[in-house]
Design brief:
The structure holds 2 protein chains of 2 kinds. Chain A is of the alpha+beta class. Chain A contains 3 helices and 7 strands; from the N terminus they run H-H-E-E-H-E-E-E-E-E. Chain B is of the alpha+beta class.
């Protein structure tokens, strides 16, 4: 685990999302991973405070499978997304290089049909080393306007 | 051109027994008249007393398009005020909630008001000497909403001077709020978290109708609930897991067949209120929470405790614009913004004294079903948006609501009916027509 391959990994995740390779994207996650979108500033608890999302691999699989479902009408036409990332900042890395935490400022765009919506925030990753590769243990997305009323957000930030 | 203003017949003509005219969803004048007539004439939910526990606490809310300020006074009384400085109209409070201390102070010219709304002070008061200020409306402080009812901590208000009393308006429909309150062994609910907010580009009534639409879940939610069931069936065989996760317990019942909804029924009440899930519901089979039954038995006795817990009503519509789910302690507020824009705020309640697990579940249900990131929400919003656009079609100006219509059916009665009926929607529109025209000056008819 070094700075360069950590940062490349974060970029690779965004690439897989932007190119809609959902199954390959899911493979980046550890079996006990969580995808968390808080709904409060500096939120501490994903479960006993309201979150927008706090999902395990099973629920993420449901989302991915739903996106390509024959009767998923909210994906006719399909959504597309775009991640514009600032260089990830490594905020913590353990001595053996087995786990690390990063923080990445982003602007995210999701579009469907004639509608285009833009979001800004910070993504935090907790990564672990597993079989010569990285796995995401936790991805946390804090939007700057977490308390605003959004319309549908159907893809992944 | 005003087609509907002060025209009782034209408004009533939009609602036929088996159909409603598309103008109820797409016409801007009708929306304006809803704000001027319907919302003021009836009792609207504006907040919960647990949000303003201490003197000086306030929340901002709305009744139709009217900005409202609710405050706790130093004598613990709750005051419902128009959120507007009597001087130049500036909103006194702009945050969803907070504590103002001993008084409200307008940020523009520092006029100040006690937390009961009365005028406290005006800077440079002598400038008003000899101007007859004490006669001016501005000297009376923040305008008060007179008709306020705090029912088991739920704060409702009616803006119009004339209209139904709270008790006459809601009647037996209050039993769903009662049930939700009784689910706390101490008989108290608490709001401790902001609502999930979700913007919908559709008319508010589409959302309200959908609450008792039992013929859409197995169709529109096949993509979300159906996929969840499918993935679980596959994954559980791989992992060998035996306990169904609460997520699947939430999603799977959406795929219940028509027969389930037919059997579990709908109960309709006067004034447009009603609920799905009379003899059972999609909420009936959640795993028990350890220790809860014994708490409830201790609080209410075994018989009543069982009655409370086994009453698993699905969605209760409090006409015009809230829905309550007692079994998962959620209230959804459908806030009209414009004819084709609706803000949905979904609140979770904590059952005071009950195991924390219930609040955890409530928050979870809220993010699974009511969030802009919810796959179930995505299914529904797609349908509302398509309807809002489709209604522009001149091929047919009417929306059909005649499923299980009976020419002898009555409104303003309490009755339990087949759960796949669209009668609750007809019930709502009957109330809509009644309260739209309740205090309307019928100039058009008078001129005839």
């Amino acid at each position: 685990m070094n700075n360069k391959n950590i940062i490349d990994f974060i970029y690779e995740e965004a690439f897989l999302l932007d190119t809609m390779q959902w199954e390959r994207w899911l493979e980046l996650y550890a079996s006990d991973a969580r995808y968390w979108m808080p709904m409060e500033w500096d939120q501490q608890d994903p479960i006993m405070q309201q979150s927008l999302m706090y999902e395990d691999i099973f629920l993420l699989k449901v989302r991915v499978e739903r996106l390509s479902g024959e009767r998923t009408f909210s994906q006719k036409p399909k959504s597309r997304c775009h991640h514009l990332l600032q260089a990830p900042k490594i905020i913590d890395i353990d001595e053996e290089g087995q786990t690390c935490k990063t923080r990445t400022a982003f602007t995210y765009t999701e579009t469907r049909g004639d509608i285009l919506e833009r979001f800004s925030g910070w993504a935090r990753h907790e990564l672990k080393h597993e079989n010569d590769d990285f796995k995401i243990k936790l991805k946390r997305i804090d939007l700057i306007n977490f308390d605003a009323p959004f319309s549908n957000i159907q893809l992944f930030m | 051109m005003n087609k509907y203003e002060n025209n009782v017949k034209a408004i009533q003509g939009l609602v036929k027994n088996k159909a409603v005219h598309r103008d109820v969803y797409v016409n801007e004048e009708v929306f304006k008249l809803e704000m001027e007539n319907l919302f003021p004439n009836v009792w609207i939910f504006i907040g919960h007393a647990s949000q303003i526990k201490n003197p000086g606490d306030f929340i901002t809310s709305q009744i139709g398009n009217q900005p409202i300020l609710v405050s706790r006074h130093r004598d613990q009384t709750i005051h419902v005020l128009y959120n507007r400085c009597p001087h130049k109209g500036v909103k006194i409070a702009s945050e969803p909630c907070g504590n103002t201390g001993k008084f409200f102070r307008c940020p523009y010219h520092a006029w100040s008001f006690k937390t009961d709304g009365s005028l406290l002070a005006v800077p440079l008061k002598k400038g008003y000497d000899g101007t007859g200020f004490s006669e001016a409306t501005a000297s009376k402080g923040l305008s008060k909403v007179e008709n306020v009812k705090i029912y088991k901590d739920f704060i409702f208000a009616r803006l119009s001077k004339d209209g139904p009393t709270f008790e006459d308006y809601f009647g037996e429909a209050l039993s769903t709020i009662d049930n939700m309150v009784n689910r706390s062994p101490t008989g108290a609910l608490e709001i401790v978290s902001s609502p999930i907010r979700y913007m919908h580009t559709c008319n508010w009534k589409m959302l309200v109708e959908n609450q008792t639409d039992t013929c859409h879940p197995m169709v529109a939610h096949e993509s979300s609930a159906g996929t969840a069931v499918k993935v679980w069936e596959r994954e559980k065989n791989i992992s060998g897991d035996s306990e169904t996760p609460i997520a699947v317990q939430f999603y799977a019942p959406f795929m219940s067949p028509y027969e389930f909804y037919e059997r579990t029924g709908i109960r309709i009440w006067p004034n447009g209120h009603g609920h799905t899930g009379v003899t059972g519901s999609i909420h009936q089979d959640y795993t028990d929470v350890d220790g809860y039954m014994s708490q409830m038995t201790k609080a209410y006795g075994e018989k009543k405790a069982k009655e409370i817990i086994n009453d698993v009503r699905h969605n209760t519509v409090y006409f015009p614009n809230i829905m309550v789910k007692g079994a998962v302690q959620i209230l959804r507020n459908f806030i009209p913004i414009s004819v084709d824009k609706t803000l949905v705020e979904s609140w979770c309640f904590k059952l005071v004294g009950a195991p924390e697990k219930f609040f955890e579940r409530s928050l979870m249900y809220n993010r699974f079903i009511n969030a802009p990131t919810s796959i179930v929400g995505h299914d529904d919003l797609e349908m509302y948006e398509r309807a809002q656009e489709g209604l522009g079609s001149n091929g047919n100006e009417w929306v059909n609501l005649q499923r299980l219509y009976d020419e002898n059916e009555q409104y303003d009665v309490s009755e339990v009916i087949d759960g796949t009926s669209e009668r609750q929607m007809r019930n709502q529109f009957n109330a809509w027509s009644k309260f739209m025209t309740l205090n309307m000056n019928n100039e058009v008819e008078a001129a005839e």
